[in-house]
Specification:
The chain is built from 13 helices and two strands; from the N terminus they run H-H-H-H-H-H-E-E-H-H-H-H-H-H-H. By secondary structure, it is mainly α.
């Protein structure tokens, strides 16, 4: 066959290795998504430590950890929910309800103070899970309804906030909220223990694999025979129980069931989880990232308090702006991963 009659052959190469610059960008994007909040946290702590003499004091750091622990427990449950691709708007009201129920149940001792909020708030989470998993209703609508239900039940128990249930000064239950070990409050150790357990469950168990699979590709998880329905019910029940438990610890710390707490707490929990790197679309996230998100939020609040001339409401402005930036970056990174996943065509003559 002569060169004049030879036809041009073309082949498609779908396995061509990425260029070095592309690989570097991919690595940077991965680090930014997974560790970006941690990098910002380290930088902010360093700046605050050098700029404000009171920031690095033992008392300030101890208070910062204590205040972070209550939201951290709520955010732990929210992390599991968001990884499955869901959302739980009820945790703020459930958190407040848990505190009132714990104060009311303290008249029956430590067991009553813990068992009553755990069971009641866990049942609210169970209802959320059943409605979302069994009926296919949108989590936003379901948990918005239980948010209103929990807040209404709270007002009914407290006679529209007119009754505040006090915890007896000699109650053993108070130790959970006000006790210290090595100068650090018990809620910090409890939150740390729960996060360790949560991290092991999420990364080292079959249930954790189901959580990621449910959020990443629910239809594929069903085809693989994974218990998607049971997984959703479990994570919502867990979220409700943890919110109630956080409320109980807060009641022990405040020595009473305060009815006005928890307003907007669900938004705080969602924001710290997302800032920590968990995708709102589900399928990716980490317990450590949530810890970083909680600490970053409270460090921002602490810095604003250290400045003194700024109103505390600026914390919401900063958190909102930071959350918006994180969501935009996550969206951009997700788009880049989709484009990288497509086969690259290269013609050879």
């Amino acid at each position: 066959m002569t060169s004049s009659t030879k036809s041009r052959e073309s082949t498609v190469d779908v396995t061509a290795p990425p260029r070095r610059s592309t690989a570097s960008r991919q690595l940077f994007a991965t680090v930014l998504q997974r560790q970006g909040a941690a990098i910002v946290l380290v930088l902010m702590v360093a700046v605050a430590w050098l700029s404000f003499p009171n920031f690095g004091t033992v008392d300030n750091l101890r208070d910062l950890l204590l205040q972070s622990s209550f939201l951290a427990i709520i955010a732990l449950g929210m992390t599991f929910v968001i990884i499955t691709g869901g959302i739980d708007l009820s945790v703020g009201s459930v958190y407040a309800l848990g505190g009132v129920l714990a104060a009311y149940g303290s008249q029956w001792g430590l067991v009553g103070a813990l068992l009553l909020p755990l069971v009641a708030c866990g049942l609210i989470g169970l209802v959320n899970g059943v409605l979302v998993a069994r009926t296919g209703m949108a989590p936003f609508i379901v948990t918005l309804a239980t948010l209103l239900f929990a807040r209404g039940l709270l007002l009914a128990i407290s006679h529209e906030g007119a009754t505040t249930y006090k915890i007896a000064p000699d109650a053993a239950f108070l130790v959970l909220g006000r006790g210290t070990l090595l100068g650090v409050g018990y809620p910090v150790y409890i939150a740390a223990a729960l996060f360790v357990v949560g991290g092991v469950v999420l990364r080292r168990t079959a249930f954790g694999n189901s959580v990621f699979a449910t959020g990443g590709a629910e239809n594929s998880a069903l085809l693989m025979g994974l218990p998607v329905v049971r997984t959703k019910i479990t994570v919502y029940t867990l979220s409700g129980a943890l919110a109630g438990f956080a409320g109980a610890l807060t009641a022990a710390y405040l020595e009473s069931g305060v009815t006005v707490i928890g307003v907007g707490t669900e938004l705080d929990a969602i924001s710290v989880v997302v800032i920590g790197g968990t995708l709102l679309t589900g399928g990716a996230g980490s317990i450590l990232g949530t810890v970083v998100g909680v600490l970053l939020r409270d460090v921002i609040q602490n810095i604003i308090n250290q400045v003194g001339s700024l109103d505390s409401n600026y914390q919401a402005v900063v958190s909102g702006g930071f959350l918006l930036a994180v969501v935009v970056v996550q969206r951009s990174l997700a788009g880049n991963r989709v484009r990288r996943g497509r086969p690259r065509l290269r013609e050879h003559s």
